[in-house]
């Protein structure tokens, strides 16, 4: 029997969900969801990180704008929009929550590797692994039940096929120890969608393969069940966000809101085409085991990446390019946040897929706010040989859609999209300040770093958040001073 009590059959004899001593609040109704080259170049310099730390926001409120001596009264924490993937930026999310929870996390839905790959292959739809991963990083940890829910939804099944199958059925039946500490309302909500996903998944497979569950994330099955049940990715994200109890002011947004499968392609400078995000960044030769994301684990590409684009699921060349629309909520958030951040990570497969969509470049270029690139500390398969200015050029070309349809391309400059770089100390990427100056970027801030044995140099999270807060505060103070001067004049 599979989750009988939830699908009309007899309820299991064992009560699988323990009532927590501190029950979580009821799930809110959907109506409470948040609204979904220069002629004369100044001498470039790498500026030191500001010594002071401004932990509050960027909106000068309560100050007397008519008095030049007034200083900004920074009340609200800053609001950010972060373009990122599902791995590199996760390491600093905990520190970011201490700076501000007013963050829109924008993630791609084109990942076709790892635990997500088989679910997408069998059930279709967009890849949600990165969204699931970010929701769990943002999830509440303040109670024993919150920790239990986080542990359950973050659990990966055994790589051994037989063990994974047994473990999966214990979870769906509500008999696994992972349910300990999860109260009945939350447990039955989660278990219902796992059971629904289980039925749809194995009906689609027709003949059960004992390897079908090996290495899969429980959270991905919950997500898939919710998306299919509601026929809405947005509804699934809303439910997962509420069940994992992320901060109410935080948004986790798919850059494309769709129920369809999305395939990422890339065009290399030698004219060849690679189909599939995983084949671009971490090819596995068909292996279904978890992806090895060590910076030196993959062979370098035969040629540099010219651009990334979306293609039909069955496509294999440029004739099959498609042009999905950006999530309207992402465009709304871009119009009102205090800062845009391009996070570290896989440049062409994690960041650029969110930038090539129509409307993204137009809005970013129109905003006079901090636009910050968090530079990688090491090269990977996608960026071998790129300097800091090369990263800037790649982001600019993506936002301008330079190599796509000429009728849809933009002509904005690099400084329209990026005005500051935060750089990890002792990183592998060349910081070519003269070239950055030619691009109109003069604010380069070195930030404390640590060494990760798998990926090399990475930002030290606390140092990164301090540098980002200082940068936002400096920009707010500058804008406030200019406003006061203008009004006084």
TrEMBL record:
Checking CDD domains in the record gives:
YvcK_like
List every stretch annotated Disordered: 1-73
Question: What superkingdom does the record give?
Answer: Eukaryota
Q: Which Pfam families match?
A: CofD
| Ranges annotated as biased composition (Low complexity) | 12-22, 32-44
Q: Which GO terms describe its molecular function?
A: LPPG:FO 2-phospho-L-lactate transferase activity
Q: What is this protein called?
A: Uncharacterized protein family UPF0052
